[in-house]
Amino acid sequence: xxxxxxxxxxxxxxxxxxxxxxxxxxxxxxxxxxxxxxxxxxxxxxxxxxxxxxxxxxxxxxxxxxxxxxxxxxxxxxxxxxxxxxxxxxxxxxxxxxxxxxxxxxxxxxxxxxxxxxxxxxxxxxxxxxxxxxxxxxxxxxxxxxxxxxxxxxxxxxxxxxxxxxxxxxxxxxxxxxxxxxxxxxxxxxxxxxxxxxxxxxxxxxxxxxxxxxxxxxxxxxxxxxxxxxxxxxxxxxxxxxxxxxxxxxxxxxxxxxxxxxxxxxxxxxxxxxxxxxxxxxxxxxxxxxxxxxxxxxxxxxxxxxxxxxxxxxxxxxxxxxxxxxxxxxxxxxxxxxxxxxxxxxxxxxxxxxxxxxxxxxxxxxxxxxxxxxxxxxxxxxxxxxxxxxxxxxxxxxxxxxxxxxxxxxxxxxxxxxxxxxxxxxxxxxxxxxxxxxxxxxxxxxxxxxx
Length: 451
Prior knowledge:
It is a single chain. With about 450 residues, the protein is α+β, with helices and mostly antiparallel strands. Helix content is about 25%, strand content about 25%. Strand 11 and strand 12 form a beta hairpin. The longest helix has 20 residues, at about 5-25. GO terms for molecular function: endopeptidase activity; serine-type peptidase activity.
């Protein structure tokens, strides 16, 4: 009888420990397919592995949330670039006037009135095909006159609409306001854009002007032909207009950089990618970055198109982002880069898309997380607040806005003045630029590095 109690107690403790050990197994929890929990658990695991700030993600949180909302809970507050989309759910995709209608707009006040200024119109876009063009001034949106207390809300309503009714007018210093008309634009697709270029002669100097709207895959051959022609015309200066370029393919941006950079070799370091403890660091030379998505044009062929310049003037602004900022930052170790305009967007991260392909018969969510920070060969980067231009200049100085490439256009005129040594200032501003709570810009999801 003396030994019964200890034996019973030992049995009880053993059984309790057995239950605890069963409850603490490391077997993963499984969720029913097509539920929010099923998707969000996958998102959580991918972000814990790849996300640049993965250590800041402490717990799974509420897996029952809508996946798009759940993804936002995993992001650092300063990360405004990462997002998730579902290819069968259009409402999950980022929206911009440029992607929906084919134009960009800003807002100004002039002589007590308020206007939306058409800044950029894509070729063969719904906007272009319905008569919108750079420099037109919007006076009414959906029949409502623009005012100080409504322009921001009207702008956001345009982002949500699938059809726009705009009342626009033209303006010139000679004739004032003229040609009022109403333009209706339906949401639609816009395809690959041309790259306009020309030679401007200014005070016996031949200046190349190139405006690139986007860095598309496979543009290296086009750059090659373009710069061979500019080189044959003996340009000695180059103005590169990237003010409306939201980024694109890194190999395309690299191809352009190879043509522009002075005295580089194929194995010179171009990009440094720095990730978390799982992703590590990746260094890419000019040749390696080019080959990541471009095989039809060689490094040597691009170098032979170098026009003999040792500096480049880059026109930039709020919509200059991603691969465009990469060019600004990563050319600096190899040549003088003179930026003219306004502070850039500030996208100094890169990554690759992560696809939920667990069900081969059904398309799943696609994550575009920030995975790497970007640096140049001198380890210069950290421009998440934007790159400040060397010459600060707002392109909206006057209500008359000239076409891109017109030597009277504000930023181009600023570049020509710098090249010629002309210290004359641009005309005094007569308009007031108005801020937006959210700038609509077709920034690419991420500069892509092949994993």
